[in-house]
Design goal:
CATH class: Alpha Beta
Strand order of the largest sheet: 1-3-2-8-5-6
Shape: globular
Main location: cytoplasm
GO cellular component, one term: molybdopterin adenylyltransferase complex
CATH superfamily: Beta-grasp domain
Number of helices: 2
Strand content: 35-45%
CATH architecture: Roll
Largest sheet: 6 strands, mixed
Radius of gyration: 12 Å
Structural class: alpha/beta
Pathway: Cofactor biosynthesis; molybdopterin biosynthesis
Organism: Geospiza parvula (Small tree-finch)
Helix content: 10-25%
Number of domains: 1
InterPro entries: Beta-grasp_dom_sf (IPR012675), MOCS2A (IPR044672), MOCS2A_euk (IPR028887), Mopterin_synth/thiamin_S_b (IPR016155), ThiS/MoaD-like (IPR003749)
Number of strands: 8
Amino acid sequence: MGSGSGLGGGRRVSVLYFARSAELAGLRCETLSVPREITSLQLWEEIVKVHPRLALIRDQVVFAVRQEYVLLGDQLLVLQPGDEVAIIPPISGG
């Protein structure tokens, strides 16, 4: 599990990677330290600094924070210790 990587201090959150995001990140879950208040876009950019290959899916990715969908953008997130942030790429199928 977690790498404990620091992204500017603050809150330790669990980042869960699914499907293509897990392939690109090379893991399914890790613990990262992030600022308590951060926009969804800033959070994505911080995660991409740790896993640059995730930039490949930037235009298709959806976040879920505390099991609520969040669009990448200016939405301010107030994170609590232990929050889960899920990185969910689009599901393809037929």
